[in-house]
Inverse folding.
C-alpha cells in the first residue's frame, strides 16, 4: 500500500506539467491554424509538448509530496476547461490561463509585497491614474459634465448643491496642469480624484483585514481586491474619465471609511482621538461637497460607538472632532461670496441666507427624494436591483460580495452594521429617488460592496479552512481582472469619442447672426462652454429651457419660442411640433419658423420632382459621414402641396428605397405626410430614417424616392412623376465595409482556409415558426463564396440575400479585417443543432480549423433556445429577451424587455412598449428611459445588459382574451427612431400573452 501511495504522489507531482503541455499544444495548433489533417498529428504534437513541459517542471523543481502534490495538480486543473472545450474560444483560453497564473504565482507575488505597503499603495495609485487618464474623454461633454467644465474653469456656481470645494480644487488643477483644453483638464481631474479614492479604499480594506487577524500577505491581497472591484465597475470607471462630481463624492466616502478603520485598529487613545478628528474633517468636507452623505452618517456614528461605547460619556473627546467638522464646512463660504460677485450660473439670491440654504440643500429637488417610496412604485424599483449591480460587477465579484457580507455578519457584526447599513440604505435612497441616473447615485453603495469582496478571504480564514483564504483571494483577483478586461475596450473607444462637439459646434457656428438657441440641459452646457471658454459665436444667445413645475415641457418651449423678438432666428436642440410654426431641421437641431414658409433656409441638395401633380419635392439632405451596414441613414426632405392639386383619397406617403445596380431592393422606409392636408400653405420638412440592415453588402447603391396614397378600397396607388415613373433617384449611397466587430451573444472562432472567420452566431424567434440565424464574419471573404446551413434536414424558408438560394447565402466580398453579418430564416426548426459549411467560387467545400486545429469541412452551431431573441435596433442595442406578466382588465401588467448594448453609447435613447388588442386596437403605451429611467443609455458600454420594465394598464372595458405588444426606441431629443434591423417588421414584436 505504501508503495502505491508513493507512486501516486510521484505521478501527481508531475501531473501539472502534463496538463500544461496539453493546453499549450492546443493553443499552438489553433494559433497555427492546424499543423495537419486529422487526429493523429494533433495527438503527436500534444504528447511532444506535454512531455517537454512535464520534463521541464521535473528538472526545475523538486517534486511535491503528500498533500502538496494534490494541490500542485489542482492549481493547473482549470486548464482542463479549455482542453475539453468544444469550440475554439481564445477568450476562454485567456481566462483560464489568467486563473492558473494567479494560482501559481499569486501567493509568491503577494508575499514579496507584504513588506512594501507604501510601494503597493503607490503602484495602485499610479496604475489607476494611468488607466483612467488613457481612457479619459478627449474634450467638451454634455449635461452635468459640460456644466462642470464651464463653471469650474470660470469659478462659477454649479447646480445645487453647488459643489464649491470641487469647483475650487478643480479650477486650481486646470491652472497647474498645462496640457490640453480646460475641458480635457477637468476630465483628467476626475481621473486623479478617482485614483485617490481607490488609494484610500485600499488602505481602509487593509486595515480592516488586519483587524480581522489576516497576515500581511492576505491584507495586501484584500486591498488589491477591493481596488480592482471598485476601479473596474462600469459607472465608477465612466465617471473617472469625465468631468464629474462623483469621484469627489467617492473620495470623501473612502477617506471616511479609512479613518473609521484607523479608529478600529488604534492601539492607544491618542491614535483613536486623532482618527476621530480626521474622520470628522473628512465627513464635513464630504457633506460640504454633497449633503446627501448625511444619510450615511448614522452608520459612522453607530460604528464608532459600537467600538468605543464610553465615547458617548466622554464629552471632552468631542470638541476636537467638532472643531474639525466646522473647519471642513468652510469651503461653503465660496457660494455666497461668488454669488455676490455675480459668478457664472450663480442664482441671483445666493448671497442671502435663504438663497444659500435653498441652493446648498437642493430644496428645489426635495420632491424627488423618496418619490418612489410607495406601495405602487416600490415593487417596480426593487425589480431593478438584478439589473443595477450586474451592470457594474461580474458574477464572480457579486457572489464573493454576498459571501463577504455573510461571513462579516458572523465574524464582525459591528463592521457589518457599518458596511451593510451603507449599502442597504444608500441603495434604497437611490432607487426611490426620482432622477434618471440611478447607477450614478449608487456609487457610494459600491464602496462597501468592494470592501466586502476584498475582505472575503480574511473573513473566511480559520484553522479548519486553511486553503479557503488563498482560493478566495485568487478567485477575487481573477474576477476583478475579468471585470476590467470586459470593460476596458469600451472605455478605450470612448476616449476617442468627440460626438458632443460634433453635435453642438456645427449648430453654433452655422446659426444665423444674432440667433437665439433654446437648449435643454444636455446641450445647453456644451454650447455655453464653446461660447464662454472658446469664444465661438458670442453674438448667439444660448438659453437653457428649464422645466416648470406643473407644466408640460413642450408648452414651456413654445412659450420661449413665442417670447423671441420678431425677426430673430430661433434654433431648438429638441424636436417639437408647434401649431403655427414650421420646424426645419438645422444641423443637429431645428429652426422654428412662423408658418407659412415659402422656401427652405438650411442648405439642401436640390432635387426637384413632382408626384401626381400634387406633391412637389424641393430638396433633400443626407446626414452622416461614414455609412456602414447596421447603421441608419437619416434624410431630410423638403416638400409642399400644390394649391391646385387634385383631391387625394388620403394624405400621401413618401417611400425611400435602397436598390443596387441591378435594381434589387435592399431596404425601405415609409412616412405618411400628416401635414399634407394644409395644401399650398407652406413648405414642410420630413425626416426619414432608412435602415441599412446588418446583412447589407458593401458597395454602391441608389436611394429612390416615391409617393403613394391609400384608396378607401385598400391597397396602394402610386403617385407618378411627370415622366410617368414611380420614383426618382435622390442620391447615390456608398456603403463601406463594417469596421467595428459585431456584437454577438454566442461567440465562435472558426477560421476557414484562405477565407473568413466565423466570429459568432445569434438566433431570433420573433416571427412564429421561423428561426432567423445571424452569422457574423471577419474578412477576408473572396468573391463568390457561400455559406450553407443545415438543420438536420430542414430547408431554408427565406434567405435575406437570395430567396431562391435554398440553404445557401452568398458571403459578400470584404477585405481583410473587415466585418460582415449575413442572415437566413429557417422554418420549423426546434432545438436541432445547425451545421455550417462554406464553399468557394467553384462550389468546393472549404476546410476550417476546428478545435485543436483539426481540419474540418464545417462546424456545428449551438442549438437555438425555444425563446431565442436577437432584434438589433439601429447599431445601438438589441432585444435579447422578453418576459410579460399579464393582468386582468382594469389592472396593470408589466413587460420586461432585456436589452443589450451593441457598442458603448453616447446617445440618449428612450424606449416605448405599445399594448394592442387582437385586431390591432390601441390599449396603452409606456415610454421612458431604459429601466424606468434608472440606467440611461448614456451609461451603457458594449455588452451591458439591462432589463427595461414597462408597466401597462389593461383597460377595464377590454373584453379580449389576448394582447400583443411591440417595442420601439428613439433618440430622446431629436426623436429620431432606432429602426428595427430586422427587415420583416418596422416595430419589434414582443409576442402575445393571454390575460387571466
Amino acid at each position: 500500500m505504501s508503495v502505491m501511495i508513493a507512486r501516486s504522489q510521484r505521478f501527481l507531482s508531475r501531473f501539472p506539467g502534463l496538463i500544461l503541455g496539453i493546453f499549450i499544444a492546443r493553443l499552438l495548433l489553433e494559433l497555427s491554424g492546424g499543423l495537419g489533417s486529422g487526429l493523429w498529428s494533433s495527438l503527436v504534437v500534444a504528447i511532444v509538448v506535454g512531455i517537454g513541459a512535464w520534463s521541464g517542471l521535473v528538472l526545475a523543481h523538486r517534486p511535491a509530496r503528500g498533500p502538496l502534490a494534490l494541490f500542485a495538480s489542482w492549481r493547473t486543473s482549470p486548464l482542463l476547461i479549455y482542453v475539453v472545450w468544444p469550440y475554439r474560444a481564445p477568450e476562454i483560453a485567456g481566462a483560464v490561463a489568467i486563473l492558473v497564473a494567479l494560482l501559481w504565482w499569486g501567493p509568491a507575488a503577494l508575499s514579496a509585497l507584504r513588506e512594501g505597503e507604501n510601494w503597493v499603495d503607490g503602484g495602485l495609485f499610479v496604475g489607476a491614474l494611468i488607466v483612467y487618464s488613457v481612457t479619459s474623454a478627449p474634450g467638451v461633454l454634455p449635461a452635468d459634465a459640460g456644466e462642470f467644465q464651464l463653471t469650474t474653469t470660470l469659478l462659477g456656481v454649479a447646480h445645487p448643491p453647488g459643489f464649491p470645494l470641487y469647483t475650487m480644487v478643480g479650477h486650481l488643477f486646470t491652472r497647474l496642469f498645462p496640457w490640453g483644453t480646460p475641458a480635457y483638464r477637468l476630465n483628467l481631474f476626475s481621473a486623479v480624484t478617482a485614483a485617490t479614492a481607490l488609494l484610500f479604499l485600499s488602505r481602509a480594506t487593509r486595515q480592516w483585514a488586519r483587524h480581522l487577524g489576516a497576515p500581511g500577505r492576505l491584507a495586501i491581497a484584500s486591498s488589491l481586491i477591493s481596488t480592482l472591484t471598485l476601479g473596474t465597475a462600469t459607472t465608477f470607471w465612466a465617471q473617472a474619465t469625465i468631468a464629474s462630481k462623483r469621484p469627489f463624492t467617492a473620495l470623501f466616502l473612502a477617506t471616511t471609511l479609512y479613518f473609521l478603520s484607523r479608529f478600529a485598529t488604534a492601539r492607544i487613545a491618542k491614535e483613536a482621538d486623532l482618527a476621530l478628528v480626521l474622520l470628522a474633517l473628512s465627513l464635513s468636507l464630504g457633506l460640504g461637497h454633497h449633503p446627501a452623505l448625511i444619510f450615511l452618517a448614522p452608520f459612522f456614528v453607530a460604528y464608532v460607538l459600537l467600538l468605543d461605547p464610553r465615547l458617548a460619556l466622554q464629552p471632552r473627546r468631542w470638541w476636537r472632532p467638532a472643531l474639525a467638522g466646522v473647519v471642513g464646512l468652510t469651503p461653503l463660504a465660496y457660494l455666497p461670496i461668488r454669488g455676490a460677485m455675480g459668478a457664472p450660473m450663480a442664482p441671483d439670491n445666493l448671497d442671502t441666507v435663504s438663497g444659500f440654504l435653498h441652493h446648498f440643500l437642493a430644496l428645489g429637488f426635495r420632491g424627488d427624494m423618496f418619490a418612489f417610496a410607495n406601495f405602487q412604485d416600490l415593487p417596480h424599483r426593487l425589480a431593478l436591483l438584478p439589473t443595477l449591480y450586474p451592470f457594474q460587477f461580474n458574477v464572480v465579484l457579486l457572489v464573493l460580495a454576498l459571501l463577504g457580507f455573510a461571513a462579516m455578519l458572523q465574524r464582525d457584526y459591528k463592521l457589518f452594521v457599518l458596511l451593510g447599513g451603507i449599502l442597504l440604505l444608500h441603495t434604497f435612497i437611490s432607487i426611490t429617488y426620482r432622477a434618471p441616473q440611478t447607477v450614478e447615485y449608487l456609487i457610494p453603495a459600491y464602496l462597501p460592496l468592494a470592501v466586502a469582496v476584498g475582505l472575503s478571504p480574511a473573513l473566511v480564514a480559520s484553522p479548519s479552512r486553511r486553503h479557503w483564504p488563498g482560493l478566495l483571494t485568487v478567485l477575487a483577483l481573477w474576477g476583478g481582472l475579468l471585470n476590467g478586461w470586459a470593460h476596458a475596450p469600451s472605455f478605450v473607444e470612448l476616449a476617442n469619442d468627440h460626438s458632443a462637439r460634433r453635435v453642438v459646434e456645427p449648430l453654433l457656428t452655422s446659426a444665423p447672426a444674432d440667433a437665439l438657441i433654446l437648449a435643454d440641459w444636455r446641450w445647453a452646457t456644451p454650447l455655453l462652454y464653446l461660447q464662454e471658454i472658446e469664444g465661438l459665436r458670442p453674438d448667439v444667445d444660448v438659453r437653457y429651457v428649464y422645466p416648470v413645475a406643473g407644466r408640460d415641457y413642450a408648452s414651456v418651449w413654445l412659450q420661449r419660442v413665442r417670447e423671441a423678438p420678431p425677426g430673430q432666428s430661433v434654433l431648438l436642440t429638441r424636436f417639437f411640433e408647434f401649431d403655427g410654426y414650421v420646424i426645419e431641421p438645422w444641423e443637429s437641431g431645428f429652426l422654428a419658423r412662423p408658418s407659412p414658409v415659402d422656401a427652405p433656409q438650411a442648405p439642401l441638395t436640390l432635387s426637384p420632382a413632382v408626384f401626381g401633380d400634387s406633391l412637389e419635392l424641393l430638396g433633400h439632405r443626407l446626414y452622416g459621414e461614414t455609412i456602414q451596414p447596421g447603421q441608419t441613414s437619416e434624410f431630410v426632405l423638403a416638400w409642399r402641396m400644390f394649391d391646385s392639386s387634385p383631391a387625394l383619397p388620403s394624405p400621401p406617403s413618401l417611400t425611400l428605397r435602397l436598390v443596387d445596380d441591378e435594381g434589387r431592393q435592399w431596404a425601405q422606409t415609409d412616412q405618411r405626410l400628416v401635414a399634407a392636408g394644409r395644401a399650398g400653405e407652406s413648405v414642410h420638412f420630413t425626416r426619414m430614417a432608412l435602415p441599412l440592415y446588418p446583412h447589407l453588402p458593401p458597395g454602391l447603391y441608389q436611394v429612390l424616392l416615391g409617393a403613394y396614397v391609400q384608396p378607401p378600397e385598400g391597397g396602394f396607388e402610386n403617385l407618378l412623376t411627370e415622366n410617368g415613373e414611380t420614383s426618382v433617384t435622390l442620391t447615390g449611397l456608398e456603403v463601406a465595409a463594417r469596421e467595428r466587430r459585431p456584437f454577438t451573444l454566442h461567440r465562435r472562432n472558426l477560421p476557414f482556409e484562405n477565407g473568413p472567420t466565423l466570429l459568432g452566431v445569434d438566433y431570433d424567434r420573433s416571427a412564429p415558426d421561423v428561426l432567423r440565424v445571424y452569422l457574423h464574419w471577419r474578412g477576408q471573404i473572396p468573391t463568390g463564396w457561400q455559406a450553407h446551413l443545415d438543420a438536420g434536414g430542414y430547408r431554408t424558408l427565406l434567405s435575406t440575400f437570395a430567396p431562391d438560394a435554398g440553404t445557401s447565402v452568398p458571403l459578400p466580398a470584404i477585405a481583410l479585417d473587415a466585418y460582415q453579418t449575413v442572415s437566413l430564416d429557417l422554418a420549423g426548426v426546434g432545438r436541432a443543432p445547425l451545421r455550417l459549411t462554406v464553399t468557394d467560387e467553384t462550389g468546393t467545400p472549404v476546410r476550417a480549423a476546428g478545435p485543436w486545429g483539426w481540419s474540418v469541412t464545417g462546424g456545428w452551431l449551438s442549438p437555438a433556445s425555444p425563446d431565442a431573441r436577437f432584434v438589433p435596433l439601429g447599431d445601438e442595442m438589441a432585444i435579447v429577451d422578453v418576459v410579460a406578466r399579464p393582468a386582468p382588465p382594469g389592472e396593470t401588467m408589466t413587460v420586461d424587455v432585456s436589452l443589450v448594448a451593441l457598442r458603448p453609447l453616447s446617445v440618449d435613447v428612450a424606449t416605448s412598449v405599445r399594448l394592442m388588442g387582437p385586431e390591432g386596437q390601441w390599449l396603452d403605451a409606456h415610454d421612458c428611459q431604459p429601466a424606468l429611467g434608472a440606467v440611461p443609455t448614456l451609461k451603457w458600454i458594449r455588452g451591458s445588459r439591462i432589463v427595461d420594465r414597462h408597466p401597462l394598464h389593461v383597460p377595464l372595458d377590454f373584453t379580449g382574451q389576448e394582447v400583443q405588444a411591440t417595442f420601439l426606441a428613439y433618440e430622446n431629443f431629436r426623436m429620431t427612431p432606432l429602426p428595427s434591423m430586422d427587415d420583416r417588421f418596422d416595430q419589434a414584436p414582443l409576442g402575445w400573452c393571454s390575460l387571466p
In short: Residues 186 and 243 are 5 Å apart (CA to CA). The chain has six domains: 2-81, 117-332+371-493, 499-594, 605-735, 746-861, 871-994. Residues 3-9, 59-71, 793-806 have pLDDT under 50 and may be disordered. The longest helix spans residues 2-31.
